[in-house]
Specification:
The protein has 725 residues and is mainly alpha-helical. The chain contains 27 helices and nine strands. It has a five-stranded mixed beta sheet. Strands 1-4 form a two-stranded antiparallel ribbon. A two-stranded antiparallel ribbon has the order 2-3. Helix 10 packs parallel to helix 17. The longest helix is centred in the middle third of the chain and has 30 residues. 41% of the residues are buried. InterPro entries: SLC26A/SulP_dom, SLC26A/SulP_fam, STAS_dom, STAS_dom_sf.
């Protein structure tokens, strides 16, 4: 407690802090609440009315390309869009082939996926810069579902059927048709069905206008999830680097199962694949580092991945790596497009939960990236429109045997750095991929799978570098660092999808925990102006004689109302419940001592008169006051940090007021926001008006100074504690 300053009470001559003239604000009259059927009718009229202007606005909003394409600045923008489109197209060719491996699909389907997503997002997307296509985390999630469904349908693991052979089952076991479907066909059927279901979820969320859910997925949560998934991806690719033919484990703790399988099969390592992997790693890692080192000087990153793929394919073809050394290769990659087909309806119940988590991850990544780059370049994006765009990037391509897509940070950074201005660059990327689909794809027949695994592993460098940032994250914010670590560890060690759920729950737990940890602090006034701050944080603050000022910096609701009272009683160094119990105990003991001999016993007819009883009661009261003296006569609570109150919070404030009044201490609230004032009024905190006069508890103070001046002006006798309520 700081030294008391009685001069603080001398504020009667000021406009601020004058108990006779406190600051008074007049509330704006509330509009009468509409009946529910009126609200429903208004909403129906708003959303169902049809005018030419509204139709045009809806169409332009749903298809943004119609808005920006007519105003396209050809001379200013075409060069940047052309350059970025070509560069992204060249980068996507090897990555699309490589990430197909991660999704347990044939290489051609990765190129299909990148092509369709580039076209559809260019038409429906509201971001000018993000690159939508294959994303490693989603490929991992899709691949896990595909492998699980292949096993449930009775297909043998790839390691049991040879490299370029596949077993055949009736597709009727999975998709309801009566045609034969080999392992590759069923795999893409499962992948396309998952993609279709995820797209439906995303479009439904857009229709329900739930784009706001992205704000609940913090950057630390998404980063931790991506890093944990990257560890799982890295582990899943080691078998290809070593040329091992082992099935992908299913269920929880897949990382431990994978490492167990790797160690038990280490003796069967394919030396050709191992040497190829080491050579490619030795080339690509330094090359990528050089790209990063000189990215400010390079107009575009050098496509080392494409060079490695071309050289490795030629070496594998002319060296006969597949036939001579048993090395796994990409195999036949057809040209053109396959006819569209419907998803396997019977599979949807099996993959519905997996598709939901995939939909959430894809949407969250896309929205966070689009908002980040929109803010950087000074324009806005619509989260709900992004939901539509990414949803249709999954629904429509699923009919052409594609798997799930979203925005990808690495390619988006490359796209922005190479001069991208609009999504015209996405259309140019689609042209590059179309050329590959129609002409070049079969040339990658001899490409080794270990080379594709190297490309995947090398592209994980950015996510894995996050481990170096842990000490800095911990120093900046321990809670965000804890969320990152929990999400990362769960995603990597337990289960990828579970990691996202655990991260969300951990974030919610920490948010609630912050309200649990809020403490009441004592405030003091500055010497030069009417400003109050925490006396334990700043020097030179002065407290008031007989009036204590406290602040609580959190909402008061059912989960922390008892902690609020406990913290207030501790900070005030006066627990009214215990104090009153001690007084009653003292009074009871005093009465018992008087009855047991310290006062003479008399017969009933010789009892004290009423006057003597009053004198005895007053004497006991005086003794109580001397023994239990209280320095505080009034207590001011600064409510500026209390955002809202629920019923339990209102009752807590009522109990605090009642308990302190029992000791003759008046409780005054100051600086309540309108939400808190309305809650107090509805909860019956204020006294009702009697005889046209305002009750004592109806005083509303908009400044602490006014509340303190009022508290100093009132005088609540100590002896009234038994009569207050």
């Amino acid at each position: 407690m700081l030294p008391k300053d009685d001069s603080c009470a001398a504020v009667e001559d000021r406009a601020e802090g004058d108990p006779q003239h406190p600051l008074i604000l007049e509330r704006v009259e509330k509009k009468p609440e509409k009946k529910w059927h009126t609200v429903v009718l208004d909403r129906v009229k708003k959303h169902c009315s049809c005018t030419p202007e509204k139709v045009k606005s809806k169409i332009l909003g749903f298809v943004p390309i119609l808005k920006w394409l007519p105003h396209y600045k050809l001379r200013d923008w075409i060069l940047g869009d052309l350059m970025s489109g070509i560069i992204i197209g060249i980068l996507l060719v090897p990555q699309s082939i490589a990430y197909s491996l991660l999704a347990s699909q044939d290489p051609i389907y990765g190129i299909y996926t990148s092509f369709f997503s580039s076209v559809i997002y260019a038409i429906l997307g509201s971001s000018r810069h993000i690159s939508v296509g294959i994303f490693g985390v989603l490929c991992l999630l899709v691949g896990q579902v595909v492998d699980r469904e292949l096993a449930l349908a009775g297909y043998l693991p790839e390691s049991s059927i040879g490299i370029n052979n596949s077993d055949t089952l009736l597709a009727g076991q999975g998709n309801g048709s009566n045609v034969e479907c080999d392992r590759s066909c069923y795999a893409i059927t499962v992948g396309a069905t998952v993609t279709f279901t995820a797209g439906i979820y995303q479009v439904l969320m857009g229709l329900l206008q739930v784009g706001f859910v992205s704000v609940y997925l913090s950057d630390s949560l998404l980063s931790g999830f991506a890093t944990g998934a990257s560890l799982t991806i890295l582990t899943s690719q080691i078998k290809y680097l070593l040329g091992l033919k082992i099935p992908r484990p299913q269920g929880w703790f897949t990382m431990f199962k994978t490492w167990y399988g790797l160690f038990t099969n280490l003796a069967t390592t394919n030396i050709c694949d191992l040497i190829t992997s080491l050579v490619c790693l030795a080339v690509l890692i330094p090359a990528k580092e050089l790209n990063d080192l000189f990215k400010s000087k390079l107009k575009a990153p050098i496509p080392f991945e494409l060079f490695v793929i071309i050289i490795a394919t030629l070496a594998s073809h002319f060296g006969h790596f597949s036939s001579e050394y048993g090395s796994g290769v990409a195999g036949d990659i057809p040209t053109g497009f396959l006819p569209p087909q419907l998803p396997a309806w019977k599979l949807i119940p099996n993959v519905a939960m997996d598709a939901f988590s995939i939909a959430i991850v894809g949407f969250a990544i896309t929205v966070s990236l689009s908002e980040m780059f929109a803010k950087k370049h000074g324009y806005t994006v619509d989260a709900n429109q992004e939901m539509y765009a990414i949803g249709f990037c999954n629904i429509l391509p699923s009919f052409f045997r594609c798997f799930t897509t979203s925005a990808a940070l690495t390619k988006t950074l490359v796209k922005e750095s190479t001069g991208c201005q609009t999504q015209m660059s996405g259309l140019i990327t689609a042209v590059i991929l179309l050329l590959v689909l129609l002409v070049i794809a079969p040339l990658f027949y001899s490409l080794q799978k270990c080379v594709l695994a190297v490309i995947i592993v090398v592209n994980l460098r950015g996510a894995l570098r996050k481990f170096r940032d842990i000490p800095q994250m911990w120093r900046v914010n321990k809670i965000d660092a804890s969320i990152w670590l929990i999400t990362m560890a769960t995603s990597a060690l337990v289960n990828t999808e579970l990691g996202l759920l655990v991260g969300v729950l951990a974030s919610a737990f920490f948010v609630l925990g912050r309200t649990q940890q809020a403490q009441v602090t004592e405030l003091g006034r500055t010497a030069t102006r009417e400003h109050y701050e925490n006396v334990s944080s700043y020097r030179g603050l002065q407290t008031h004689s007989g009036v204590a000022v406290f602040r609580y910096g959190a909402p008061i609701y059912y989960a922390n109302q008892s902690l609020f009272k406990k913290s207030l009683y501790k900070c005030a160094d006066l627990n009214p419940v215990k104090e009153k119990a001690l007084r009653l105990k003292f009074k009871k003991n005093k009465k018992q001592r008087d009855e047991t001999g310290k006062m003479p016993k008399v017969k009933s007819e010789d009892n004290l008169s009423k006057e003597n009883e009053v004198e005895a009661s007053a004497s006991i009261t005086m003794m109580l006051d001397e023994k239990f003296s209280i320095n505080i006569r009034s207590l001011v609570i600064d409510c500026s940090g209390i955002l809202f109150l629920d019923t339990a919070g209102i009752n807590a404030l009522k109990e605090v007021r009642k308990d302190y009044r029992g000791l003759g201490v008046e409780v005054v609230l100051a600086q309540c926001n309108t939400s808190v004032l309305d809650s107090l009024e509805r909860g019956g905190y204020y006294d009702s008006k009697k005889d046209g006069e305002v009750g004592k508890n109806n005083m509303i103070f908009f400044t602490i100074a006014d509340a303190v001046s009022y508290a100093q002006s009132i005088n609540v006798p100590n002896g009234d504690y038994d009569n207050k309520s």
